[in-house]
Amino acid sequence: MFFWSAAMIAQGFVSNYSGLMATRVFLGVFEGGLFPGVNYYISQWYQRHECGFRMALFFSAATLAGAFGGILARGIAEMSGVGGKSAWSWIFILEGILSILVSMIAYWCIYDYPATATFLSTKEREEVERRLTEDHGHLSNDFDTKYVWQAIKDWKIYIFMFICMAGFCPIYSFALFLPTIIKNMGYSANDAQLMSVPPYVCACFFTISASWYADRVRKRGIFMLGFQLIAIAGFSMLAATAKPRVQYAGTVLAAIGIYPQIPLGMAWNSANIGGSLKRGTGIAMQVMGGNCGGIIASYVYISRDGPRYIKGHCLLIAIIA
């Protein structure tokens, strides 16, 4: 976390395309293990039917970042010219500094496993380990490469990779182009940043509440299917009409539909993989599939298709379906 925060700060000082690409590469290298690592970490502390809600709390930070990022970007836009730097440079610098501070705090506050958690008493550590053994059985936690190969050869994990790719593709597209979509509804650039907040707030609420209830009833698939239908309805509204209010309602429905799918899918996959090393590998494979969706996302909304981006909306409908 410290190093990708440093890479983010470095982006604020680049002056050409080559420098930007170099810092983006380092950002991707250092940041790549964060999402699968945190989800694996959660699975090491909680029983399977308790993980979805915790994963949703972590992932909801992405929706909150989208919400408050718009407000923050609007405020930092006023810093344009300070220190001879553009507003976008200050966004990278200030957010990178904040992330570095969080990484330093996290190093001292987060423990690897329940067995090493000094904030727990001996009896509490034993109880946590008993619950995990009761839930996971006596599956091996040994570090042996055969468990990595078991994950690679497990066809079910590849299904979850494709599900995750279909989930992350609209999320990346939505996050990258939401301000542009809203701006093309007739709002100014600064107002578009502010108008992008409500869809993320709604997505955050439904991400957390749906995952909590899914844990409670111990079902995942039916929830994912329901949110996929909501997402399809949202993107259909964006593609079908040019009325700003209807389009904005479509962005809210799209956000509600796409964001809850990720923690639901992560919890579903991790709950079905036995053994800590195989589970960690399976989670990493799932996120790798999701990141491939990010590659597709950069080609969904093409400038020549603006201002309606009908082709992009229809493509996302097809991917979700």
UniProtKB/TrEMBL annotation:
Record carries keyword Transmembrane helix: yes
Gene3D superfamilies assigned to the protein according to its UniProt record, in alphabetical order: MFS general substrate transporter like domains (1.20.1250.20)
Keyword match Membrane: yes
PROSITE patterns, A to Z: MFS
Membrane disposition: Multi-pass membrane protein
SUPFAM superfamilies: MFS general substrate transporter
Pfam family of the protein (one): MFS_1
Organism, scientific name: Didymella pomorum
Domain Major facilitator superfamily (MFS) profile: start-end pairs: 1-321
Listed InterPro entries: MFS, MFS_dom, MFS_trans_sf
Gene Ontology molecular function terms on file: transmembrane transporter activity
Gene Ontology CC entries for this record: membrane
Name assigned to this protein: Major facilitator superfamily (MFS) profile domain-containing protein
Lineage, opening ranks: Eukaryota, Fungi, Dikarya, Ascomycota, Pezizomycotina
Cellular location(s): Membrane
Transmembrane feature ranges: 20-43, 55-76, 88-110, 157-177, 197-214, 221-242, 248-271, 283-302
Keyword annotations from UniProtKB, A to Z: Membrane, Transmembrane, Transmembrane helix, Transport
